Amino acid sequence: MKSLSDSLLETNYTAKARHGSDSMMNLTRRIKIFSKSPLSEVAKRKRSGTYQCCTQQNHNASRSLDYRELIKKHTEVTTNHLTPELQLHLITPTCPLWYTGIADCIFSDPYWAFYWPGGQALTRYLLDNGKEVADKVVADIGSGCGASAIAAAMMGAKQVLANDIDPVAALAIQMNAELNGVYPNIEISTENLIGHSKHWDFLLLGDMFYDKDISDRVLEWMDMLAGQNTKIFVGDPCRIYMLDHPIRTKLRLIAEYDLTDECKEENYGLSSGFVWEFIP
Q1: Considering the entire predicted model, what is its pTM?
Q2: 43-84: pLDDT as tens digits
Q3: Element holding 32 (H helix, E strand)
Q4: Residue 210 in contact with residue 243, Cβ under 8 Å?
Q5: How far apart are the C-alpha atoms of 189 and 167, rounded to whole Å?
Q6: Domains, the chain
């Protein structure tokens, strides 16, 4: 049975099958191997005012529901990942929601409920090299479950921002920060900050290079921030958009980690997570 994470990985790509000779099975398998689902679609809906915290058919009924209780009910607190120092609310194979299709999911696009490979590698690096961010101002953009921001706070960062455009992700980040004893030391924002000129000592980007459009916009932004002396770390399992993108010429590899067996299985062949420093 297809899992929710599988469905997320395939979201918005099915139309591409009409423009090539490959079967849908082969197409979606390549997408699973090389690509994270297009969060840019969520961003577009949010900017256009059509974004909802839950699926459209459940929106009215769910308006009064306590999302904190929903997150507790539909996720598992787990340490089964590259960073067992952190407890995280995640959707795992033990959760019924794992086997639910997107149309039937109480949450809209719950990317925050999965610990993506690049984020795992980036967070592992921060935990192993805490002196990098100690006493620094750190921003984690596209924060998802908040793991990298939480790690930065645990390692003594002076100020930490966890930013994700999904308001349910923002609540999940808060809950995960509480679990790990670093809330309210983390500021949480749902503003779309890509392209904004802010002063941070460190910018953390985990799993952000999942399609060409977002990769182009993020690279332009990274160039701008690097010009303001912001140090930028990127975590990614080498998806195809990063392999083929000009950003590769501006990245210096600083760490590589073997993914857990569970993470390898969930991500269809990706075996390592990488951390790069951006060199403009």
Answers
A1: 0.80
A2: 333 333 333 333 333 433 343 358 999 999 999 999 999 999
A3: helix 24-34
A4: no
A5: 9
A6: 4-113 (no CATH), 117-278 (3.40.50.150)
